Amino acid sequence: MPDQPPQAVQEKYPEAVHLSEGASSSCMGIRSPSRPGFELVIVWRIQIDEEGKVLPKLDLLTKVPLQALELDKNGVIETAPLSFRTLLGVLGIEATLESLIKSLHTEASN
């Protein structure tokens, strides 16, 4: 993340964010405390174009139990990566990640 490295996000939300490879990880897992086995994984790469401009590329992967997939009649889990890309375009990287983390934790608090 340009303004906030993944480690800073993990420090802010230690109960929700997991960096599988430590501080230099290219994957960040966001877990729901109330839904064991449910995890959103953000994978990012940094690309540099011919002019030297740095372009972060983020993708969302979902890890959900098979039972949850079977119950998802509206295809929310299947369309999550596309919805994530849409959010990135509208909110930006930092606000999108904050939104995902907070939505999982708001659900857990209810």
Automatic annotation (TrEMBL):
Give the highest taxon in the source lineage: Eukaryota
- One of the protein's GO biological processes: CENP-A containing chromatin assembly
Record's InterPro entries?
CENP-P (IPR027801)
Q: Which Pfam families does the entry link to?
A: CENP-P (PF13096)
The UniProt entry's GO CC annotations, sorted and at most eight, read:
chromosome, centromeric region; nucleus
Q: Where are the transmembrane segments?
A: none
Q: Which PANTHER family match?
A: CENTROMERE PROTEIN P
Under what name is this protein listed?
A: Centromere protein P
Species the sequence originates in: Eschrichtius robustus (California gray whale)
